[in-house]
Amino acid sequence: MKNGRKKKSSQYYFRRKVFSYTQYWLLYYTERYTDKTEKDFATFIEARSYDLAKSILVNKTKELDKSIKVKAILGYMLHKDYISDRLAHRKLKIGDWDLVKSSSFPNINNVLFKKELPRKEGYTNRFNKATAEDTKGKGFKTGDDNWARKHRKGKFLPLGKRKGKKWTGHEWIAWDKNEMLKTKAKIIDALVQNKNNRKAAAEYLGIGRNSFYKLMCRCETKDWWDKEYPIAKRIPPRVSREERSKTQARVMADRRAKGEVFFDKGEISEAKRIANLKKAKAKQRDEYRKSLIPKIRKALSENNNIRSAAAKSIGVKPGTFRAWMLKTKKWVDWNNEYTSNYNTNKDFSWNKIQ
């Protein structure tokens, strides 16, 4: 008798390969319904890989009925040397390939052709019989009969009590102090290099994140690490304006669906809206007019209070300059502060122009 491992079948390699062209897969599976009943089926799926074939089957079944759960999928790739016990232990012929091709999914009619396989009497699944009596006494036991309670009792240590300890595979022993300090220095260097990001530090050392945490607890307590090398806070990713708008629209739609009213479009609300709009416009207009006052003052001071010369110095028409003075009259009394010798109409009524 030859020693060594059992040779794996060709289907083992087919299921782990992604082909450059589609293959035909024979899938056996079980459908579980809401009333906890089950039925077994077989179907043909056309796909480039075994995983994709299973995904196509599950998605198509959910498309037909979301309440059905697909379980226990087992598939075989059909090839020139494929032999099945359902085909009287013979290879596939040309006619068989034609039937497989016409009945496989996906197809032009978008129909999943499946054949129900009667389950053997007394079987609780496609593979074997499993009654309550068969499973009685099997599995993990509770209480003192539990395997971990018998074999690991007194050997397990919580993370908080592992400082300065080393696991030999059978028991916890005292860890060599020099070796522990060297390990601690490596951990600190990894944290510094990665700005206290512990996941990145674990990758830097070439170990898993959980192993990294356990190693930290064996060198120092959790409180010490949190104080000396606090966890780096992750900066939330920047969200684009379009994504924010979509999120806000979705949230508002959900709140409306719950009956929440945001804006009352009655007559009172509309009048209030118009009044607020006018008030905002007036405030914006006043801010602009106030910004003109320094420019007018400077122009008048440099041109001996002559309006036309001041207008020309800043590049506007005299009429525009006088309009600026009229619109800013409620903040500055231009006639008294900047009196012009050429202004013959000193009793001019400002209200006529406003």
Q: What are the key terms here?
A:
14 helices; alpha+beta; 354 residues; 12% strand
Number of helices: 14
- Overall shape: it is elongated
The biggest beta sheet reads: 4 strands, antiparallel
Helix vs. strand class: alpha+beta
Provide the residue-averaged pLDDT: 86
DSSP strand content: 5-15%
- Major sheet: arrangement of strands: 3-1-2-6
- The quaternary structure here is single chain
How many E-type strands? 8
Radius of gyration: 42 Å
H/E element string?
HEEHEEEHEHHEEHHHHHHHHH
Q: N-to-C terminal Cα separation, in Å?
A: 115 Å
**In which range does the helix fraction lie?**
40-55%
Residue windows where pLDDT falls under 50 for at least 5 positions = 345-354
Could you give a quick summary of the protein structure above?
This protein is an alpha+beta fold. It contains 14 helices and eight strands.
Molecular structure report:
β1 (23-32) and β2 (38-47) form a beta hairpin. The protein is 44% helix and 12% strand. The protein is α+β, with helices and mostly antiparallel strands and 354 residues long. The chain is elongated. Among the domains are: 12-117, no CATH class; 159-228, no CATH class; 291-352. It is built from 14 helices and eight strands.
